[in-house]
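Exercise 3.2. Students should predict the tertiary structure of the chain below and write it as structure tokens, then compare their answer with the key that follows.

Predict this chain's 3D structure.
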Amino acid sequence: MKFFYSILIILIFPISLFAQDKADKKYEKDIYQKANEQMYEENYTGAQESYLKLLETGLSYFFASTDRGKSLKYFELAKQFSRPDTLVELFYYLGRSYQLNSDFETAVKNYEKFKSFFKNNKTGREMTEEIDGYVRMCQHGQYHLNLFAQDPLENSDSPIKDLTKYFMNDSVFVAIENLGKKINSQYADYTPLILNNKTYLAFTSRRNRIDGESNQLFDGQYFEKILVSRKAEGEWKQPVEVNYSSVFGQALKNPENDHNAVIYLNQDENILLTYSNNKIYQLNRVGDNWSSLMDLGEEINSSDGLQSSAAISNDGNTIFIVSERKEGFGGRDIYYAEKNSDGSGVDQKYNRRVEILVN
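Answer key:
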């Protein structure tokens, strides 16, 4: 959310995000039993402290990068030991957790409950606008869940396994098949790029290094790294770090203690953009050979901001950059820069605010 609550202060409570399920269940049972006893003994102060521990656990899962759906049960338990007006932000987190678990109707009920506490002032109107956005997302999600009830592939001669269907309308859909455990890990894997006549897959991963020597970062994941998988006999093989792949020659290497990510490949597969050390780099391919990394310069890689992603227009004349800069609207904004008339560099950069459009 763009607004923050005192509720976040309790995140300092030292709860492990990586405990096993068995330990989680014991912790939950002990706190729940203690709170029940305190309520029976009319020790309401003690019960409230137990309630906060459940809430803290829910928040620790909610803000984690994995297993966020587990936050729901702790928020529900916390609600049992509080009055509706004790900590109204709980309804926001309940709504978000139900939304994460695809229970969109219950999510909307909690969002509407949360909105009932808003005042008719500037802050209240801003909060209403944001929550209404989540409600529209839930309505959109429920629409697609209803479409999923009918499987258009049920009569397929060779049904696709581990499939997610995204319907564009009542009859047209996109089928997305999970690439499986060889490619995907328990950590974030993203930005897949297909190249070399669909025989290589390059992507970014937050998993540990193959040699297992990285340290986990604050979010429980590892530095970004580029991985490459080769397709053989109709399936993708075990990916390796780009250091051990010849697909980019010697141009790309994953550093030991920094992020390194692929972010864009053009349609002709001869321009690659990567991210490392808070900068966006470009590689060009001529024939079968890739150039060395090229820093795009201060106009693109602002020293007072954070550059995280970029893409180039089809004609190659405009680059769009996602950047967090002092002159922006706040947070990350989209900028673009155009080549000079001689075909090199940039003339000027422009700022455009990003709007999320939800039908």
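Discussion points: The two ends are 21 Å apart (CA to CA). Residues 1-23, 152-160, 346-359 have pLDDT under 50 and may be disordered.
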